[in-house]
Amino acid sequence: NTIYVINGPNLNLLGKRQPHIYGHETLEDVKNACIQVGLDNGLDVTFMQSNAEAQIIDWIHDARENATGIVINPAAFTHTSVAILDALNTFDHPIIEVHISNVHKREPFRHHSYVSGVASGVIAGFGTQGYVFAVQRMAQLLAAAAT
Ligand code: DQA
Q: Can you provide one Gene Ontology molecular function annotated for this UniProt record (predicted)?
């Protein structure tokens, strides 16, 4: 099984960007952790990041052919993008939404997510470890779907 881990805008600056909120780990660290936990659980992780909404939509379309699960941190597009929601609605396999910070204890505009309605589950506030939880959970969901 191949899963996509898709990251939205500004997450390329992880580790440098507001470390009091997002921590000191870089996106490269997160990528390596996801690939490793994927391997441990029999999943091939394709890890990507873009600042462009169109690129993220194209990757979701691509996942229709090439992936059996999507873990996505849409970053700010979480709160704005009907287009990403519509793209995710074309994907017939599990979707898990991840946020590094606890969006619910932050500004009110971060409390609503367009993506949560199509997600099997949502992880927020566990720092970058949330990605590891998401990949582990994805492995469980895919194993259950295969039986
Ligand atoms: C985020 C939370 C979003 O509100 C914010 O725009 C981000 C990152 C998180 O991982 O905590 O860029 O998705």
A: 3-dehydroquinate dehydratase activity
Question: What is the C-alpha separation between 9 and 12, in angstroms, rounded?
Answer: 7
Q: Is the CB of 103 inside a 6 Å radius of any atom of ligand 1? A: yes
Q: Are 53 and 81 in contact (CB under 8 A)?
A: yes
Mutation test of ligand 1: which of 22, 99, 114 has the most ligand atoms closer than 8 Å to its C-beta?
A: 99
Identify the CA nearest to 86 among candidates 53, 130, 49, 47. 53
**Residue of the CA atom closest to atom 6 of ligand 1:** 76
pTM flag (> 0.95): yes
Instruction: Quote ipTM for the complex.
Output: 0.99
Return the domain boundaries, the chain.
Answer: 2-146
137 lines ligand 1 (CB under 6 A): no
- Per-residue pLDDT 10s for the chain (147 aa) are 999 999 999 999 999 999 999 999 999 999 999 999 999 999 999 999 999 999 999 999 999 999 999 999 999 999 999 999 999 999 999 999 999 999 999 999 999 999 999 999 999 999 999 999 999 999 999 999 998
